[in-house]
Amino acid sequence: MITSCSINSDTTYPYNGDVGDKYYNYPVTLAKLQKVRGSLWRKSWNMLPLTVAVCGWCATLMLCRIMLSRESAQLAETAELAAHSIQSKITSGISTYVAPLEALAARWGADADPWQPEWKSEAQQLHQRYPALESIYWVDASYTTQWGIPSSHLQGGTLRQEIDDARKAGKTVVVPSRGSNPGGKSLLALIPISRHGKFEGCVIATLATGHWLRLVIDPEVPKGYTALLSYADEQLHMWHASAVPGASRYVSEASVDFYGLPLVVSVWPTPDQSSGSRHMLFALSLVIGLLIYSSGALAVVAHRRAQAVECGKQQMAVQQQDLRHANEHLETIIQAAPFGIVAVDPDGAVTSWNSAAESMFGWTEQDVLNRIPPFVGTDQADEFHAKIQQTIQGELIAGLERRRQRKDGSTIDVAIWTAPLRDSAGSITSIILAIADISERKKLEEQLRHSQKMEAVGRLAGGVAHDFNNLLTIINGYGHMMIGALSPQDRLRSHAEQILKAGNQAAALTTQLLAFSRRQVIQPRPVDLNHLITNLEKMLRRVIGENIVLYTLLGENLDRVKADPNQMEQVLINLVANARDAMPQGGALTISTRNVKLETRLLCEGNEILPGCYVEIAVSDTGEGMDEETRNHLFEPFFTTKERGKGTGLGLSSVYGSIRQNGGGIVVRSECGRGAEFLIYLPQLHEPASVATTEPVAKGFHRGCETILLVEDEAEVRKMLRESLTGAGYRVLEAADGTDALHKWEHEARSIDLLVTDVVMPLLNGRELAKRLTSVAPHIQTIYISGYADDVLAYHGTLAPDTVLIQKPFSPAELMFKVREVLDARKNGPPSPYRPVYQRARV
Hints:
By secondary structure, the chain is α+β, with helices and mostly antiparallel strands. Mean pLDDT is about 75; it is low at about 1-30, about 40-45, about 690-700 and about 830-843.
């Protein structure tokens, strides 16, 4: 029987009740129900109903026991009364038959003649009067049957013992008959006759017990009882035959002394009579017990249901509280999420709109509820509904990138994810849209593509500059040789000067290409930008013209930067020239410097610069400005807004490359009609100032007689260099590549004083060649020549201090000066620091 309400501690109880629109299918853990469980146990159901039921049943059984005891006593009493009644009836009944015989025998004994003929007739009359007397015999003292009624088939000798017993007793003796009829037992009544004390014989009568016992006893046997007349465990007669007397607990017996024959009368109830009441009482007690038990069980069930209802109420209260807390928690998370989270119904109408979506698109929740999201344009509505149906069918959307409209009319790039929201029955009730603002990522991707494009163009420009510098080296070299061979009055001298002029302009163009591609070899050193701008100011004023006012706002205590001063001058010249072209009607140009400290990363053109201390150079103008399309292509090589033939499109691209090569960044701010501002950021340098050295100027040819190993893979360049060196008196050993140079070295090692080698060559580059030669001959010096070093000699464009490099294109005089300088330095002491030869671009 269930007596208490228990809760399984390992399970949770899902609540599916209606607690508002937002509360459903929320699992309530048992940790939240401990208080409810404790209160229920304090009010736990006791055992009173069950005890009452058991006690009631026991009382019923006790009552039944008493009733059964009374019933048993009544059964025994009835049986006893019946036995005594039968006893008296038998006694009186049998005397009715025996007494006439005794009277007849007494009269016969009084006769003088022991055998009178009329005895038989008298016996015949008595037989007819009492049918129960089946037969009457006269047996004399010699045990001989004299006559019998109705026949004399009785053999007196067979009853010798019984006759002797009757003679000795001197009175009537009744014994059972040895041969009984099939209908029942018979009795023999033996009446002795004596005359003058002498035994004359016996009158023997056969008494049939069946008929007269039925007439005497049957009316005395109660209904439902059985009676038995027995002698010495031998059954004489039984009424209502049933089980033997020993099988019943309620047998009543009475003894009858029937003329010396001890008879026993037994009376007991039949099984139906004795067990019927017992069965009825047992059934009654069982029914009463079941009723009491059912009543107690119903009381227990009612109490348990009341407990269950109370438990359910308290559990529901806890669940509702937990659901409210969970809803508030989820609502807080949704409102604090950086993603726009929008819920729409299957028709696309908005049902929920978080704060991130509001800040992302500009519409409040009240503006968008129960309508199609306003950021979906009319041309996008079909696609929107198709994606909703796709999500309902189980195909979730992940990272769908689209451009959507904001409330202020601007557009925003977003990525969209979708997922269905189901109710407790599993039906889809809403679609959740998670929207991420990817505008910044799109910008970064665009910048990355732009940077990769610039890098690719830079590599192309570097490769072109390398080949072009080789050609310019030949052109300018032979041009200088022609000018040296022609007199000032020669008409061809002016032609050669024009060739050199065009070659120098082409050299300036390749310098700008190398600056943009950051393939130009530089020698950074501490630079005071205020000092550099002050020295360059006069030239800048000549560049911008008289209709433009130049302002210089130089910051005090400006920190120095580590950069190539020639490149910084070129950067300022190109920016000033670009500002001049943006102000054809005149205007104002401002160059300012200051120290700045960046707290966060700064997004620049093509890169980001880290937080730290920087020197800012701002070049701003009041010109026409530029639109977004122009800004996107501003630093691409050969991009220009000038008319055809009036610009190379390499000025700003070289500015971009030079700033990046010196570890800085550049930011452009401009709008159409509001001018432009270029902000350059270079890392501050905190090192002691070094003494500036003046670069010597190459004047005239410097002759010599040493042996020079010349290595150049371009045959025309090698030929021009050989003619220039041999013309200056040097002995020249030519090699087409590094492998050829090693063979020449094996034969002329002792005589070679200087190695002049190109940097970029197939199989074995100039750097590896010089390394192998100096490993066996440390005294030999090396001069590198190259269109661009491509990090073979320089690390990120910065040349090592002990490296001597002449950049192509160069003149024969510059080569002769550097050769002589290196050879003389070997004789006089350690070689002087490298001072590279630059070709300044002409604006």
